[in-house]
Amino acid sequence: MDFELSDDQKLIRDTARTFAKNVVAPKARDTDRNEIFPAETYRQMGELGLLGVNVPAEYGGAGAGVISYALAVMEISQACCSTSVGMCVTNMCAELITQFGTEAQKTKHVTRLVSGEAIAGAFALSEPHAGSDPGAGYTTAVKKGDRWVLNGTKQWITSGAHAGVIVVWARTSNDGNKGLSCFIVEKGTPGLTAGKHEEKMGLRGSNTVPLTFENCEVPEENLLGKLGEGFKLAMIALDGGRIGIAAQAVGTARAAIEASVKYAKDRKAFGSPIGDFQAIRWMLADLQTQTSAAELLALRAAFLKESKVPFTREASMAKLFASELSNRAADRAVQIHGGYGYIDEFPVERYLRDARVQTIYEGTSEIQRIVIAREVLKQLA
Ligand code: CAA
User: Fold this and answer.
1) Is the CB–ligand 1 distance for residue 232 below 6 Å?
2) What's the pTM value of the predicted model, to 2 decimals?
3) CA 331 to CA 365: how far, in whole Å?
4) Please, which pLDDT band fits residue 343 given cuts at 50, 70 and 90?
5) Which of these, 231, 252, 311, 374, has the minimum number of CB atoms within 10 Å of its CB?
6) Is the CB–ligand 1 distance for residue 181 below 6 Å?
7) pLDDT tens-digit map of 298-308
8) Please, which pLDDT band fits residue 126 given cuts at 50, 70 and 90?
9) Ligand 1 nearest-atom number relative to CA 85
10) Residue 324 half-sphere exposure, CB side, CA atoms within 13 Å?
């Protein structure tokens, strides 16, 4: 067992750290308050190799592996989760096309995603009535000559109005989960419309829209993977995506601790910095312990994925633990800041709002427990 990062992993982490500190963090408050989609930041991240950390170099990625990817997400998230969520989803789309796409699909779409040319990727799985149960989606794809015609509505689509490349799930038969197939749809395809941007509690700089497909035609070569295998592709992509959200939650928790430590050293009460009081120290001690545990869970899941061994259970455990922790960490940070934690002069109220969705998207905590329990029971059978 080796806890030391390789030189390449340190390089990616440090590149992300410097970019987060110099470019992302100074804009984070404005990005959130004014709902500014970070398109220019994504272009810059593409140039630095931060949009395709785990994508092979032959398709424009950094080819630096899953651990490096998780480290980079932690750094960007510590500065701004509105920015890191789009980074995660773009990576998820790029990895999925790299794993299941034809050579032509990889050359065309993955390179655009990781270079930042496509601005972002979008993962269009959820529907208004089908979030935790994506196999219940209504969107259809019907073959017409050498084209697929898509009809339906997708909901909560991260970066949906800006993404140049959208991976869309649609029903190609009525065979339950086995009736879903996966398609690549490019921005600007006739029949594809992005709806009203949702005014969210947190992640306000991230764009979240419904996408409507109305007789939206794509060429037959835009089928991703095999017909009827869409559900499996979604599950495989989400296993990897959950490592990204676990890493995002670690970044949020670290940011909450960092802000709290600074405040606890500056703020005085009863003649001493509040960091001298045991009440504050115990909160910090618990949060630091749990954040280190979350980091190890996330990196272990990343290590397993990188080693090409099953990691479904570990990804869900990391996502469950880290996202529940980030909410506690942000909540405690507000408590430590007292009244100042409740106003936007300090960043901790943003951390609390941003953390809230982490136990919901890419599978709620309840879904993670279903996945973990199934794997545990399989293992003990
Ligand atoms: N890897 C590979 N295959 C898998 C798999 C995995 N992790 N999990 C399931 N499968 C396969 C099964 O083996 C099964 O295959 P067979 O039919 O050939 O046996 C098939 O998929 C169906 O599996 P289940 O019977 O387990 O499916 P289910 O309907 O019971 O659902 C679930 C399982 C885990 C609850 C799943 O529906 C799930 O993960 N739901 C949550 C969805 C989710 O996370 N949505 C997030 C939206 S995206 C998002 O948030 C992105 C964003 O913008 C930030």
Assistant:
1) yes
2) 0.97
3) 18
4) very high
5) 374
6) no
7) 999 999 999 99
8) very high
9) 54
10) 12
CA pair distance 334, 348, nearest whole angstrom: 6
Can you identify the CATH homologous superfamily of domain 7-120?
Acyl-CoA dehydrogenase/oxidase, N-terminal domain (1.10.540.10)
Q: Ligand 1 pocket test: pick from 208, 231, 245, 317 the residue with the most ligand atoms within 8 Å of its Cβ.
A: 231
Q: Calculate the dihedral angle through the C-alpha atoms of 278, 279, 285, 290, rounding to the nearest 10 degrees.
A: 160
Q: How confident is the model at residue 34 (pLDDT cuts 50, 70, 90)?
A: very high
Class of domain 231-380: mainly alpha
φ and ψ at 342, to 5 degrees? -95, -5
Residue 134 Cα, ligand 1 centroid: separation in angstroms? Answer: 8
pLDDT at 381: 65
Q: Strand ranges (DSSP E) for 195-271? A: 208-219, 223-224, 268-269
Residue 221 a catalytic site member: no
Cβ-proximal residues to 38 (8 Å cutoff; 6+ apart), any chain: 24, 27, 31, 80, 82, 83, 86, 205
Class of domain 123-229 (CATH, top level): mainly beta
Residue nearest atom 9 in ligand 1 by C-alpha distance = 235
Rounded to the nearest 10°, the torsion over CA 207, 208, 210, 215 is 40
**What's residue 379's pLDDT?**
82
Residue 278 binned pLDDT confidence (cut-offs 50, 70, 90): very high
Domain boundary assignment for the chain? 7-120, 123-229, 231-380
Q: Contact at 8 Å (CB) between 54 and 64?
A: yes
Residue carrying the six token digits 């109005």: 161
Angstrom distance (rounded) from CA 232 to CA 228: 9
> What is the predicted pLDDT for the residue at 314?
98
